[in-house]
Amino acid sequence: MKPKMVKIWKLGLVSYDTSLKIQQALAKRHFNALRNGNSINNDTLLLVEHKPVYTVGIRDETPADEITRLQSLGAEFRKTNRGGLITFHGPGQLVVYPIINLKNYKTSVKWYVKSLEETVIKLCEELGLEASRSPYTGVWIGDNKVAAIGIHASRYVTTHGISLNCDNDLSWFNHIDPCGIEDKGVTSLSQETGTTFTPEQITPLLLNNFEKVFNCSLEDIETDVQEDILNGVYNKLMLESVES
Predict the structure, then answer these.
(1) Contacts of 153 (CB under 8 A, 6+ apart)
(2) CA distances (Å), origin 162, targets 118, 159, 194, 241
(3) How do the pLDDT tens digits run along the chain, 244 residues long?
């Protein structure tokens, strides 16, 4: 079987709001293609770092005073439509958002989450680290989580994804129970290896393992597609700032 093609889009350091709107725009391209019976493959892998932000999933009910406390630390706070509870994103953490149609792979959300976990586990193996799954979603080294996973799927089109701690400041996690788990910790690739690994250094390893696990080929997204989506996103952000 011919490998599927997935486009790579490296966004660098962006706000959570900007990346979310880009995800939504890419997902919309999938939905439009499905509605029009178009067979064009719009599968895309977004790679970003975020400015400090705490995010929560659908089931989280963080009280208002707790939100205010977290914002006072200098981070934003966003409620999302992904699975999972509270986590943190910040510089030095590689965040990967696959916007893919699972019909091109396997129509199973459980398979998809396990495949994301497997991608990170194999990456860790290349660094000499023994990572594993646990009853909790994500990837763990011992009792410490190195990668959080929270996804959303609508008509088998996925958004959200993986946050992999590379060389980020882990002290931000001290202010929360990451993913709602009280007796577990967090770690990073740099902390576990004793060597500084930046998101830029880890990106090729992640892409290589994503290719293997998902049996796909990767290539950079077209410039005109980037420009079209970014123009729409920034226009929406400007309109929202005027309305608020």
Answers:
(1) 102, 109, 112, 159
(2) 12, 10, 22, 29
(3) 567 899 999 999 999 999 999 999 999 999 988 787 776 688 999 999 999 999 998 887 889 999 999 999 999 999 999 988 899 999 999 999 999 999 999 999 999 999 999 999 999 999 999 999 988 889 999 999 999 999 999 999 999 999 999 999 999 999 998 766 667 799 999 999 999 999 999 999 999 999 999 999 999 999 999 999 999 888 877 777 777 6
Give the length of the chain.
244
Question: From edge to edge, which strands make up the β-sheet containing 87-89?
Answer: 76-79, 53-56, 87-89
List the one residue out of 228, 142, 153 whose CA is nearest residue 191: 142
> Within 10 A of 152 (CB to CB), how many other CB atoms are there?
18
Contact predicate 88/178, CB 8 Å: yes
Catalytic residue among 124, 166, 179, 216: 179
Contact 148, 238 (CB under 8 A): no
Rounded CA-CA distance 210/43 in Å is 13
Please confirm, yes or no, whether 216 is among the known catalytic residues. no
Burial of residue 80 (CB within 10 Å: 0-12, 13-18, 19+) is: middle
Give me the residue label for tokens 């998809």.
112
- The one-letter code for the residue type at 190 is S
